Amino acid sequence: MPTSGTALSLFQKVMYALGNFAQGVGPAVVIGWLQYFYTKSESTLDGNIVREGTAFLSYAAFGFIAGGARLMEAISNPVYGYISDRTKSRWGRRKPFIIFLSPLLAFTFMAMWFPLYPMAHIANGIWLAVMLGIFWLSYAGVVGPYLSLLPEITPYQDERIKLSEIMGYFEVGGMLVATIVAGMVIEGFADGLNLGFVRISDGYKVLAVAVGMVTLLCFWFSVRYVSETPHSSSKEVPFNFIDAIKNTFKNRLFIPYVASVAFFRIGIDSVIISMPYMIVKILGKKEDLAGIMQGAVIVFSLILFPLVSKLSTKYGKKIIYNLGLLGFAIGLPLFYFTASLPFFGSAIVKILSVINVSFENEFFAAQMAHLVFILGLISFPISTAFVLPRAIFADVVDNDEKETGYRREAMYNGMEGIISKSAAALVPVITTQLFSLFGATSDRPLGILLVGPVAGLLVFLGFLSFLKYPLRD
Fold first, then answer.
1. CA dist 472 → 118, 127, 312 (Å)
2. Helices 409-438 and 451-466 sit at what angle, rounded to 10 degrees?
3. Which of 134, 122, 135 lies closest to 58 in space, CA to CA?
């Protein structure tokens, strides 16, 4: 197999990578803001006291609806993969799914932010369950085939790492929109927006409409300028559904890889979900600051993309990815100390005082400094999670072709999906149960603070899993 060369122009790489912007922005908005929107739809700052508005759903109701929707997506992934691997059309095996399911994905994303009643009501639960369920089902049908194109459009190892890096930039761009920009939109359009005869009542809905339309366009453009390799005997996959699953697990690269991705996803989603609660409930600030803090870790990670690519090329993907997993597992539990014992932040404040930098509220400054320091600490691990999994995935698929003689990218994406998305489905269940049992308010914040240690323990399991990955590069 070639290890160098150029298969794609820069323009083709950029256009294809646009799909990763869409893959990043919609789910990040859902993960980062939907739970907060439905469980505490409004928060107003009255002096130093955060006064809660009306919730559309209880923590428990939202948690089980969101977890159930992600579980539906997880189960659908191998089904889509099996069908896509066996699809024959003039557009290829992957493009039809992206072209025809993207509109449904965009519509349901927008619709879920328009609950039927302005208060807690069973109809809101039904509406959310239907819209969120269809959103995740259509997301699986678009993203699996989209990612399955990568091993086909470039066979070169160096270029796969570079393309994965570019895809990482776009995914980060999507997450920045979902964090910093989203927080600004939510605050900036809190009183709504008039578009001609149409009235959009609040910032969450303005964000939903904008992101939904961008998602549709990005996915369509992502497949406009790349082509699948010509049909060949390696694409005539003869396995039935059960045999296709069995042969996937026979690949010795797959289980260590997919376990690491699943646990990494739990960690990242936990940080995103807990940040609005950390900022609003514990620190007493507004949603726009929560968006900035969510975005800060993404920006820190983005800066390190070239370093991750360079180190991976020099030392191998396995070593660098494992360092990322271990660093994330160590860093996440440190969020626990933000409320009452921000020791990193206190040290930073003391250092700044030496150069005559003072703060009106030193304890709050220490809390913020502690939070920023931890976000900086986990930025390299998160950077490895953006850059390396797609390149590692291509190696997993190539190894399968050597063992079976067939190209089964979509089935592998599907099996990865059912495992990693099942893990992701646990995040809203875990967080809402922690909030319900231990509290998620300014005077009872333990549930929020426990998210970091719990997520860190799970990411450590991912680190142990990837130690068994047999390839060095």
1. 54, 47, 10
2. 150
3. 122
Q: Which of 153, 13, 144, 164 is nearest to 80 (CA)?
A: 144
HSE (side-chain half, CA atoms, 13 Å) at 196: 1
Distance CA 270, CA 265 (A): 8
More confident residue, 225 or 111: 111
Q: Mean pLDDT across the stretch 61-89?
A: 85
Higher pLDDT, 60 or 331: 331
3-state secondary structure the chain: CCCCCCCCCHHHHHHHHHHHHHHHHHHHHHHHHHHHHHHCCCEEEECCEEEECCCCCCHHHHHHHHHHHHHHHHHHHHHHHHHHHCCCCCCCCCHHHHHHHHHHHHHHHHHCCCCCCCCCCHHHHHHHHHHHHHHHHHHHHHHHHHHHCHHHHCCCHHHHHHHHHHHHHHHHHHHHHHHHHHHHHHHHCCCCEEECCEEECCHHHHHHHHHHHHHHHHHHHHCCCCCCCCCCHHHCCCCCHHHHHHHHHHCCCHHHHHHHHHHHHHHHHHHHHHHHHHHHHHCCCCHHHHHHHHHHHHHHHHHCHHHHHHHHHHHCHHHHHHHHHHHHHHHHHHHHHHCCCCHHHHHHHHHHHHCCCCCCCHHHHHHHHHHHHHHHHCHHHHHHHHHCHHHHHHHHHHHHHHHHCCCCHHHHHHHHHHHHHHHHHHHHHHHHHHHHHHCCECCECHHHHCHHHHHHHHHHHHHHHHCCCCCCC
Cα–Cα distance measured from residue 188 to residue 175, given in angstroms and rounded to the nearest whole number: 19
- 6's tokens: 């150029």
d(CA 267, CA 287): 21
φ and ψ at 363, to 5 degrees?
-70, -45
Residues 6 or more apart whose Cβ sits within 8 Å of residue 194: 200
Residue count of the chain: 473
The answer to whether the CB of 249 falls within 8 A of the CB of 255 is: yes
Range of weakest confidence among 363-372, 390-399, 462-471? 390-399
How wide is the angle at C-alpha 424 spanned by C-alphas 423 and 426, nearest 5°? 70
Mean pLDDT of 308-312: 90
Structural domains in the chain, sorted by start: 10-225+235-466 (1.20.1250.20)
Report the alpha-carbon distance of residue 465 to residue 448 in Å, rounded: 27
Distance CA 54, CA 308 (A): 44
**What confidence score (pLDDT) does residue 172 get?**
79
Side chain identity at 247, as an amino acid letter? N
What was the pLDDT predicted at 6?
Answer: 52
